[in-house]
Amino acid sequence: MAPGAVLLFDLDCTILDTTELILASFFYTFKEGLGETVSREQILQHFGRSLDDQFRIMRPNLSGEEIDRLVALYRKHNHAYHDQMIALIPGADVALHRWAEQGVPMGVVTSKRLDMTKRGLQQYGLWSLFQTVVHHDSTSRHKPDPEPLQCALANLKARPEDTWYIGDSPYDMRAARAAQCEAVGFSYNTFKAEELVAAGAGHWVRSWSELYSWWEINHHKSEG
C-alpha cells in the first residue's frame, strides 16, 4: 500500500459546514446558562476538541455538574437547529463518492457523538460510504490525543504510514502526527493554513476538488 491508500476525515468544518450552528449553540449556551457573552474568536480557537473539553477549557472554575448542564443546553439548541443550519462543504460528496467507487477504505474520526454524526451524514447521503466512524464515545481520550485515530486504524486494519487524516483544526493535525498518519489540513472557514502547518500539517488544501486532485497525483505517482 501507499500513502493515501486509506483516508480518514474529521466531520465538522471538513465534510459538513457546521460553523454557524456551532457558534450559535455556544452563544445560546453562555447566555442562557451563565448570563455571559462570548466572542466568535474565543469559541473558534477551541474548534476540534470534544464539547465537554471545550467548556472545561473556557471556564475551568466550573464544577463537573455545571459543565454537564452547559453541555445539555448546547445540545438542546444544536439538535433543534441542526438540519436547517448545516450545509455540505462544496465538492465533498463528489470526492467521497469517487473514492468509494474506487474501493478506497474511508472513515470518519470526530469528537461529536454518534447520533448527530450519523444524522449529519445521512442528511447528505454519505453515511454508507464509510467503513468506520469513530465518535466521542468510541474512546476515553479525544483529539489531540491519538487514541481516536488509532481506534479507526485498528477498525480498518490499516497502517498509519498508508493513511491520511484530513481535518480543519490544529487538534486534528496534532492527533494525526501523534498517530503517525499523514496530517492534511483543510483550510475552509475556521483555521488558517499557517495555523494548520504550525500544528503539524504536512500538506494543506482549500477545497475538496484540490484535495482530490492532490490525492490523484500522489496515488498515480505511487503506482508508477
TrEMBL record:
Keyword set, alphabetical order: Hydrolase
Under the GO molecular function aspect, what terms does this record hold? hydrolase activity
Per its UniProt record, what Pfam families does this chain match? HAD_2 (PF13419)
Instruction: Kindly indicate whether the keyword Hydrolase belongs to this entry.
Output: yes
Q: Which domain of life is it from?
A: Bacteria
List the InterPro entries. HAD-like_hydrolase_sf, HAD-like_sf, HAD-SF_hydro_IA, HAD_2, HAD_sf, PGP-like_dom2
Identification of the protein by name: HAD family hydrolase
Q: Which organism is it from?
A: Sulfobacillus thermotolerans
